[in-house]
Amino acid sequence: MSIDLQAARHFIESGARVLERHQLAVLLDNGPVEPVLTALAAYQNDDGGFGHALEPDVRCPESQPAAALAALDVLTDINATHTPMVTEVADWIATIAHPDGGIPTVLPSADGHPHAPWMTPSPEAGFLTYALAAGLWQLGARTSWLDTATTWCWNQIEAIDKPVGYTVEFALQFLDAVPDPARAAAAIELLRPAIRADGTVPVEGGIENEHIKPLDLSPRPTAPSRVLFDDTTIAAELDRLEHEQLADGGWDFHFLHYSPGQTVDWRGLTTLAALRTLREHRRI
Known about the structure:
Layout: H1 5-15, H2 18-29, H3 34-41, H4 65-77, H5 84-96, E1 104-106, E2 122-125, H6 128-138, H7 144-158, H8 165-177, H9 181-191, E3 201-202, E4 211-212, H10 214-217, H11 231-243, H12 260-280
Antiparallel strand pairs: 1-2, 3-4
Helix pairs in contact: 1-12, 2-3, 2-12, 4-6, 6-7, 6-8, 8-9
Organism: Nocardia fusca
InterPro entries: Terpenoid_cyclase/PrenylTrfase
Protein name: Prenyltransferase/squalene oxidase-like repeat protein
């Protein structure tokens, strides 16, 4: 192991949110999940959705799709399949869905609050639909919206012409989660042309050389999407991830740092994600 695990712990304790600190205890120390749920509840609104900068790029208090996704990620991380939060956030997602199941990426309530330049409110359904559906499939939350959204996701992916950027990442999340392995395997191949020879996907309109890495596109060794990457690529990416630990013990993210609060929050999330990926691949 080339990483300094104690320094990583110190970084989380010194700069990350309480939520990530409790998640780290679950990840590395087999800690209880209840403190994670308590910390997550602070971001939940009365409508069942989540806000309050749970997703650091949209910092309004009102419920937002990106924050709902962040909540589902936390619940999946601790395998909290039976908490009422799953049903509550699923019900909220249904209230903002278009009739065909598509979900807007950013709601109008983001206006007037700090948010990343790419988080501009728009009524159009977007790629978060893939990821939200994936989260509910992983958590076993069958709802009428999930059935409709699943049809939307299949229709979008199977008609895709030139997949780019985060559409590829979130579509792969859906294909890794949806319980239709044969159809998913065929759809995964439709996304292969978006992946460059080094295993990355460029992000148009991002910072210079912004791209999505193989371990973000396929974070789990047993995921169906792992067929897109050979063992040599994954080993090299794990080596790179280990060596990206900084002197302060944490990891940094590779997209725009647009505000101090966003930077602090995302560094905590990125550090936790790095440790999770390295543990998943038996590097720690």
